[in-house]
Amino acid sequence: MTTMRTGPTGKLLRRDVVAELLRDRGGLLAIGGLGAPAWDITAAGDAPENLPLWGGMGGAAMMGLGLALAQPSRPVAVITGDGEMLMGIGSLATIAVQRPRNLAIVVLDNEHYGETGMQETATRHGVDLVAMARGAGIGECRLVKTAEEVTALRDALHAGAGPLFATIKIDEAPVPLVLPPREAAILQARMREAIMGKAAHLQ
Amino acid sequence: MPDAAEDWPDQIYALLKEHDIRQVALVPDAGHSRLIKRCLADNDIKVVTLTTEEEGIGMLFGAWLGGEKGVLLMQSSGVGNCINMLSVPIAHRTPLPMIVTMRGDYGEFNPFQVPMGNATQQVLEAMGTLVKRADAPEDVAPTVNATLRMAFNTYRPTATLIGQRVIGAKTFGK
């Protein structure tokens, strides 16, 4: 288990949380939402099984759905931020109806738009993403605040116990950028090759 | 030979099968209702009804990551909901075929349909999409075939716009 530290707010540090979620990841495919979550999955170890997003704000969860439907035997984790999730909040309804067993959506909630100057998001003012996911009909919805709960979440998403939604309350202090490749054609092609081998490039 | 005036939705369905389309993302439109029924009746096609059309762009990007081909069905008004998300298939260089039924295009009754219907092709082209129109029933199948081929062979967003002359304008009894 990863040692998970807390920051000045008493909440867990995002990099430690993501390192734990992706620990011993096996075949787990991870989509990192625009901004800090994309840097977080990269800091945990840049890998072909990672798709860090440089754009498409609001689209991460739906990318996870398309991928989970196409690869039903592999666990898929969407790791994104509260601002990104709020922009695509309707996708929780779309995903709930499809019930993909191998899809987990994990929101790293620092209650701020971190890339644009730390403006407050709606979650800062009490908007409850877990309740919204539950209301959409996603069967397993969790609010995560402790290291033990992060490890339990990690085990559930690796087991493919989805569809699963979790909000992890994280410390808001900014952390150093760890940037993935910026050429998005490489990002998609390397993930496709990791899944399907060289045949991916001849589809 | 089936009558193209009536059978163009069935011809699109046949093309989806020919191209091995496995995921169909859509916000319903009356013009697509027959095609949607055909897809829903097919166990090899996953039909996903979206809350907004841009969700489909994310979903079909994910499908391609996992090796499945998909198509996005929508009405012309939905194109307006997609604009920024089109950066995803462009930057990643991934296929995104779209089949768009037009409103606000030819004999429209509803004023709200006209602004987006009139701008649909320009908006898509401004965002780097290859756009072809079908304004006669017999043109629908070859145009959709070209749209599918260009998307999956050249890795980019492509669209067929099916004109209101093909679908018929909704008249609200007037």
TrEMBL record, chain B:
UniProt key word Metal-binding: no
UniProt entry keywords in alphabetical sequence: Decarboxylase, Lyase
SUPFAM superfamilies xrefs: Thiamin diphosphate-binding fold (THDP-binding) (SSF52518)
Gene3D superfamilies (alphabetical): 3.40.50.970
Name of the molecule in the record: Phosphonopyruvate decarboxylase
